[in-house]
Each structure stands twice: as C-alpha cells, then as structure tokens.
Automatic annotation (TrEMBL):
<dbReference type="InterPro" id="IPR015424">
    <property type="entry name" value="PyrdxlP-dep_Trfase"/>
</dbReference>
<dbReference type="Pfam" id="PF00392">
    <property type="entry name" value="GntR"/>
</dbReference>
<keyword id="KW-0663">Pyridoxal phosphate</keyword>
<keyword id="KW-0238">DNA-binding</keyword>
<dbReference type="InterPro" id="IPR051446">
    <property type="entry name" value="HTH_trans_reg/aminotransferase"/>
</dbReference>
<comment type="similarity">
    <text>In the C-terminal section; belongs to the class-I pyridoxal-phosphate-dependent aminotransferase family.</text>
</comment>
<dbReference type="InterPro" id="IPR015421">
    <property type="entry name" value="PyrdxlP-dep_Trfase_major"/>
</dbReference>
<keyword id="KW-0808">Transferase</keyword>
<dbReference type="InterPro" id="IPR000524">
    <property type="entry name" value="Tscrpt_reg_HTH_GntR"/>
</dbReference>
<feature type="domain" description="HTH gntR-type">
    <location>
        <begin position="23"/>
        <end position="90"/>
    </location>
</feature>
<dbReference type="InterPro" id="IPR036388">
    <property type="entry name" value="WH-like_DNA-bd_sf"/>
</dbReference>
<protein>
    <submittedName>
        <fullName>PLP-dependent aminotransferase family protein</fullName>
    </submittedName>
</protein>
<dbReference type="GO" id="GO:0008483">
    <property type="term" value="F:transaminase activity"/>
</dbReference>
<dbReference type="InterPro" id="IPR004839">
    <property type="entry name" value="Aminotransferase_I/II_large"/>
</dbReference>
<keyword id="KW-0805">Transcription regulation</keyword>
<dbReference type="Pfam" id="PF00155">
    <property type="entry name" value="Aminotran_1_2"/>
</dbReference>
<keyword id="KW-0804">Transcription</keyword>
Amino acid sequence: MQALAKTPPEKTRGARLRSSQKRTRAEAIAAELFRRLQADAYRDGRLPSQRQLAESFGVSRGTVARALEYLERNGWIATSARRRPVLTPPERVFSGKLNGFLDASHFRPPLVNAAFDRKDRRNGESTSVIDLSVLCHEHWDEHINFDIESEAVERALGRFARGETDIYRTTGIPALKAAICRYLAPYGIVAKPSEIAVISRRLQAYRLVAEVLLGHGAEMWFPELSLVRHYGIAERHTTRRRLLEMDADGQIDFEAMYFSKRRKVVFLEPSRQKPTGASIPEVERRELVEVARGNNTFIFEDAYCELLDETHLPSLASFDPEKKAVIHLGAIPTWLTPVAGISFIVAHERIINLLRASARRDYLNPEFLTQLAALEILESHAIDEMLERFNAFHRARRTFVQSVLEQQIGGFARWELPGSFGCIWVELPDHDIDKLYRARKTVDFQPGWFFGEPAKSSRHVLLRYTLPAADFAEGVARFAELCRPRA
C-alpha cells in the first residue's frame, strides 16, 4: 500500500504511460484513446478499426496495434483477430448507466452551490437559552483526545516543513487518500487513492452527489428518518422525492423502490436507523446492492457514524468492489477528533472525477493542516486509542443522560437510548407538541417532524446531549418545567 501514496494521479488504471516528453508515438495514441474512453466517445462499445485509427492519426497500423496493447493490458478493451476492439463489458455497462444519469441531470461543470443557511430558531437572548437541538457542542467531549491531537499536529507541521506534501490537491493529498485506503481495508472496502475524495463536511457530500446524479425524471429515495429530509437535499435538482416507509421497529420497506423502473439514487444511513436503533440486516444489504448493480440505481451509503456501531455489520460498499452502484461516505468524525476531523467519499473513479469538476475548491478540500493531522492519526493508528477513549466517555455520558431524563421527565414521557449518536427522541403522548414548541422561551428543541411525523399530529421531540453535561441537565430541567401543567 505504501507504493500507492507515491503514485502520481495521472498514472492510474489505463493511464500508466510515460510523461509526454518521453512518450513514443504509440503511447501518445494510447493516451488519446484513453481520454476518449473516459469521455465515452464510443457509445456503441466498439473502437474504430485499426485501419481507421491509423488513417485518423496518420501512423502505421503497427503503431496503432501497439497503442491498443496498452489499453488491453490495463483492462479497458478486448481485441481479437479480424474484429474491431471492444470495450470490456463491466466498463461499458457502467458507462451507460452513468451517462444516463448525467444526461438526465444536465450536469455541466463547473456549478457553484449556494451555502446552506439554517435559520436560528431560538427565542430570547442567546446567553439565556439552552439549545437542546444543537448538533454538536465544540467542547462537549471535554478534550479527551487533546494529547493525541497535539502530537499529530506537531508531526504534521514537521512533514509540511520538510516539503513532503502537496497543498494543491483538490480531492485530498495523495498520502492521506492512501492512508484512508488502508483504513478501509479491514472493513472489507477495497479502494484506490483515485477512488477517494476528501471533503470538508457531510452536508457537502450529499449536495455534491445530488448535483451530479439527480435531474428531471430521476427519483430520489430516502427513509422517513433521514438527514435528507432535515437538510432539504436535492429539492432543486429533482421533483421526484420518494419516501421509504418504516415500521415501528425501524425496519425499512424497500418494496416500492424495487417496483420503480425509473433511474434513481437512494440515500441511506444503514448503520443505525433513528430513533429505533434498528439496522438493515446483512441479507437485505446484499440484496440492495445486487438490485442496484443490475439496474439504473446508485446507493449513497452514509456511514459517517459507523465507528460507534459496535456490531459493525458489513457496509454496502463491501458488497460492491467494482463500485458499480454504491457511493460510500465515511469519516474521521469531528466528535472523535475536532482537530483532524474529515469526511471522504469512496466511489468509482469516474464519479470522483465528476464530483471534483462540480464543486468549488472549498467543498472538496478541507484545510490543509486538518488533512495533515488526519494523515498522522491514521498512519500512527492513534485513531484506535481515540475511539477507545471516546466509547468509554460516551457510555458514561449515556448513563448520565438516562439518570437526568428519569429524574426530570420520567413521569410523563417515554424514550429509548441510544436513538442514534447524540440524539434522544422523547415521546409525549399527552402533550400538544406544536403548542409546546411555540411556548418555549429558555430552552430550544426540535419538534417531531424530524421523526417523520406531521407537525400537527406529532408526539415526539428531539433532544441532543452533545453539549456539556451541566448544560444538558439544566436544559432538561427547563424542558420539564415547560411540559408540566400550569396551575
């Protein structure tokens, strides 16, 4: 794997040719044909004959034959006597699938995405309101990994001072992408650095994929309990938004999706479905991937919080080594290491190239020091110790959260821990949630629409415990006071 870190990006599969200054004529023709294959210039799945290629390039047929040898050696084409060279079947099938999505989405790089702007819903002055809806507090983990992060930053600065890195890489520095490949291997995900894009934030990954693959006529499927609903992903890219229904146990019903013959992108968070804690069974995961591989379907697998799932069911990406269907979102999350937190997308090389073409530089390129620190954490295997510390801390925090909830709202509410990382869905069957939400003053929370319920008939609120323990305890006390009937 070390060799991958030193391999320039232009020397990937099908392009392992010498630099332009040293290329033979045959190598130069092979490079040009490779560019045409990447652009899908031969949609019928066949290259022109050797005679036609020789005439178009102004060379002998022997030179063309040597050029075709380069492409065949790298698996891009198959040749046979007295027949035109043909594209290898896997690539031709994937090209047709991908081009169908691109034609429907009318994707034309570069596009500029507007920044996501979420309105502040708090009432009163910020100093007097405890926000139990905030996604994550900057200091909530009490710096349990500060010493590891500090050491990683020192080594990262040393690496930068020695000139061992390239700051001008828009999809992540090569050494970091190679380290991510090694990091993924134990999870059954085989990837090359050219199939990795390092991104700044989770939301940006959703928007990038939607921008490239979704358009008029394409369907977007997602579970009722999904970040897609919360983020408002792809509302401007497609009008065909389809819900995957869930039962009371949190199991997703995929039957309606299987019946649909339209091209579609399915956005899934398969490791832990909120708020039940249910997970997609391994058999169903395998079936999902097989269905997607066989038709016009891509699956966007959000495994951002996978590290916290102690059961570690196989990821969808592990069933799709050729990356014909699954686009995998992984992370070294900020809740584990605020200094070196990154997200990354694993996908077919052509999709990575499209994502790179679609976005502003700040979408795909986290701060350089962040990438260097993440590289040091991965290469030193410090992430294992970080995770061990965090899990111990998280178990203790959940015990504390349970005791606070029992003491303050145990008499009139129901809940289950963990609903998902950092989140608690509190069921209040005897309360008017809409009225309760309007009456809040010194405490903020999210109403049950995030649970998939209509606002008018909601029975749940969402509270988050990713903030300092004292603030959480005080916030729940204020929430309990709000819920108590007035005399």
